[in-house]
Amino acid sequence: MKKALEPATRYPSIWDEMRAFSEALWGDSDLVRVFPRTDVVEYGDRYEMKLDLPGFKQKDVEIRVKDGVLTVASTHEETNEKNVNEEAKYLLRERRSLSFERSFRLPKDTKEDGIEASFSDGVLTINLPRKPEAQPRTIAIKG
Fold first, then answer.
1. How many CB atoms lie within 10 A of CB 79?
2. pLDDT of 12 higher than 90
3. Which CATH class is domain 36-79+96-132?
4. CA-to-CA separations, 140 to 107, 128, 132, in angstroms, rounded
5. pLDDT digits over 86-100, tens only?
6. What residue spans define the domains of the chain?
7. What is the SS3 assignment for 81-116?
8. Contact at 8 Å (CB) between 40 and 49?
């Protein structure tokens, strides 16, 4: 089997360097690029979004809808702890503040005033009802 040809010299782009930096910092560059991880499912009468927000609290999450765009945002303080003892000092400190804002363009058939959300076990579920005229209907055949 022939090996694919590769350029003799490859100059890394700024994006390659940023990806390498984020992998070194976070270990999983996908987490940095797409957070929170989200699933969207279409049902006949609605869409359902599930966003993974481990460690977040319901009170810290904000959902906005404007001009057909749904935005989920939060600032989460993982720890506010300071050294309580002057003799103590951190040797490793990985828990820190995390904030994000992620926006989604809604389908045109979304009934924006009927959007509902719930939060349980670190998963934010957003139900987006569809307008009745957009829902599939069965046409009776006359014979």
1. 10
2. no
3. mainly beta
4. 28, 28, 18
5. 777 777 776 667 788
6. 36-79+96-132
7. CCCCCCCCCCCCCCCCEEEEEEEEECCCCECHHHCE
8. yes
